[in-house]
Amino acid sequence: MSIGERIRSFRLEKGMSLTELASRSDTAKSYISSVERDLQLNPSIQFLRKVSRVLDVNIEQLLNDSVYENSPVLDEEWMKLAREAMESGTSKEQFKEFLEFQKWQKIN
């Protein structure tokens, strides 16, 4: 599936019109249309960033659908929590220990 096809698919899943996506992402409707129809095959990262925010997906999902085919998507809230943990000085090991403790609590 092409980038344009993925954008169109995500847009339709959200019940969003081409006009609405263009307006909310501050991009030209004609440009989005040309990307969706595979006339424009190399959209800029700025365009992908704008569109992905409106569609509430990761840029990686627009670029490669097989990456996230069978795995859950990390939304902005999860990303924010991970950043906060890193900024607070929590190490990866501490975080892993916390997760293991949570799993243990569920079992017991």
3D structure, described in words:
This protein is mainly alpha-helical and 108 residues long. It folds into two domains: 3-68, lambda repressor-like DNA-binding domains (434 Repressor (Amino-terminal Domain), Orthogonal Bundle), CATH 1.10.260.40; 76-107. Helix content is 66%, strand content 0%. It contains seven helices and no strands. α1 packs across α3 and α2 packs across α4. The mean pLDDT is 87.
CATH architecture of the largest domain: Orthogonal Bundle
Structural class: mainly alpha
Shape: elongated
**CA-atom Rg in angstroms:** 18 Å
Task: Report the CATH C-level class of the largest domain.
Answer: Mainly Alpha
Number of strands: 0
Task: Please give the share of residues in helix.
Answer: 55-70%
Proportion in β-strands = under 5%
Order of helices and strands: HHHHHHH
Number of structurally distinct domains: 2
GO cellular component, one term: cytosol
Protein name: Transcriptional regulator
Domain HTH cro/C1-type: 7-62
Keywords: DNA-binding
Features:
2 domains, protein dimerization activity, single chain, 434 Repressor (Amino-terminal Domain), 108 residues, 66% helix, TransReg_Diox_bact_type, elongated, mainly alpha
SSE layout and pairing:
Elements: H1 3-13, H2 18-25, H3 29-36, H4 45-55, H5 59-63, H6 76-87, H7 92-107
Summarize the entry for a quick read:
This protein is mainly alpha-helical and 108 residues long.
